[in-house]
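Course assignment 3, question 2. Fill in each field.
Student: A.L.
Task: Predict the tertiary structure for the chain below.
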Amino acid sequence: MHDVVELTIEPLDIGRISRRLTLPECGATVTLDGYVRRFTNGRETDHLVYEAYDSMAVKEMWKLVEMVKTEYEIAAVAIVHRLGRLEIGETSVVISVAAPHRRAAFAACEWLIKELKRTVPIWKKEVFAGGEVWIEGDAAS
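Answer field:
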C-alpha cells in the first residue's frame, strides 16, 4: 500500500511527500501545497495555530482515502497535515494524488481538500494584531 496519512508537528517537505507516490503505473501526481497566507478577509495574519483530535482526525483522513479511491481512477493518496504554530509561508497541509491520468488526479485532489476541511477534526486559530479567532471547516479556505 502506497497511501500516506499523517499528522505531524514537523515542517512538511512537499517533494518528499509527493515522491512517495511515484508508481510505475501512474503518469501524473497532483500535489496541493496549502500554506499560511498573510491576509484573510482583509485582516493581516500574524500566525496560525492548528490543533486536532489526533486519533479521530487520522481515522477520518483514512476514510477520505478510501472514499476518493472509489470515486476517481487513482492509484495512491497522501494527506499530511501539520499541527502547532505556523508562520506566514509555512506549509500546513500537503495532499498528493497519483493516477494513471492527470484529470483524475486533479479532480481527486480538489475533492480531498474540500472534504478534509469539511469533515476532519482539525481546527485552525488565526492570530492577528488585536485578537484571534478559530476558523471552522469550509470557512478556513
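Instructor remarks: The chain has a mean pLDDT of 94. The chain has one domain: 4-135.
Grade: pending
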